[in-house]
Write a structure and sequence with these properties.
The protein is α+β, with helices and mostly antiparallel strands and 259 residues long. It has a domain of 180 residues. It is 21% helix and 29% strand. The chain contains 6 helices and 14 strands. The strands form 4 sheets. Strands 5-6-11-3-2-12 form a 6-stranded antiparallel β-sheet, covered by helices on one side. A 4-stranded mixed β-sheet has the order 1-4-13-14. The protein has a two-stranded parallel sheet with strand order 7-10. Strand 13, helix 6 and strand 14 form a beta-alpha-beta unit. The two termini are 28 Å apart. 28% of the residues are buried.
């Protein structure tokens, strides 16, 4: 699949327990970039690790089962895989509409931090495909300075945050959605203060563990589910009951070919 072609469907490996939460809440969880398996993500050449300011939801476009995923991202005994259409989130979030590097992109607040009303979460990138680099080229191409100074002033280099990996991970064939956390006060800063204050925030902010985004009704109802290689008949009965409760259109539960 070419990089610039958006897949029609995405796949996410998880557990039956998490599936139950998704079906009950009709939401997908975005987790901190700091919690990903590749610990090099979020590192920059100047500010070091700024991964706490980004929340991601990870998927693959491979309909063919990726065998390591059954053990990497789900408890083997209760593993399952969900299939969702790409445009899965409610329109109010602008997810899947624009990317931050799109000239038509407009920031849209999702919420303020409930604890102190000081942070804003915004859609940062629409669906994008992870780029993989050989290890000896990774630092040169990927770990660049976050702050760049030109004759016209300062600008922030966000293009490589959470978007690139060493090619050891290329088997994942990964796609992501991303959210960005930044301090509300920066909206009122003048240009001379904004860069300095943002950098201080990125270096010192506490980790925001997760945020849940609502699925749109059409995507939710069209969800399809596959059970993993070690699931048993009782797991199939449980998932079929969850499907019935959630009124999904597809009542059939598929089974891994390795079961």
């Amino acid at each position: 699949m070419q990089d610039n072609i958006k897949p029609e469907f995405l796949f996410h490996y998880t557990t039956i327990e998490t599936l139950a939460l998704i079906l009950k809440s009709k939401k997908i969880r975005f987790s901190s970039l700091r919690k990903v398996d590749d610990k090099l993500e979020g590192l920059t050449g100047d500010l070091k690790d700024i991964s706490s300011s980004f929340l991601i939801s990870c998927w693959t476009a491979s309909e063919r089962e990726i065998i390591p995923f059954w053990k990497l991202y789900a408890k083997s005994s209760t593993a399952c895989r969900i299939k969702m259409q790409t445009d899965m989130f409610k329109n109010k979030y602008n997810m899947g509409v624009f990317s931050v590097d799109d000239p038509n992109y407009q920031e849209k607040e999702i919420m303020l931090d409930e604890k102190n009303n000081s942070k804003i979460i915004v859609p940062f990138r629409n669906l994008f495909k992870i780029k993989y680099f050989e290890e000896d080229k990774y630092d040169k191409h990927c770990r660049k300075n976050f702050i760049n100074i030109t004759k016209k002033g300062y600008f922030l280099n966000l293009l490589n945050i959470g978007t690139v990996k060493i090619d050891h991970w290329s088997f994942q064939k990964e796609y992501r959605y991303m959210l960005y956390i930044y301090p509300k006060v920066l909206k009122d800063d003048n240009n001379s203060n904004k860069i300095e204050n943002l950098c201080n925030f990125l270096k010192t902010q506490d980790e925001y563990d997760f945020f849940d985004l609502e699925l749109n009704d059409e995507a939710f109802k069209n969800m399809e589910i596959m059970l993993g290689p070690e699931c048993k008949e009782e797991h199939k009965i449980i998932v079929e009951s969850l499907i019935e409760y959630s009124k999904l259109r597809s009542k059939k539960v598929s089974i891994s070919k390795f079961n």
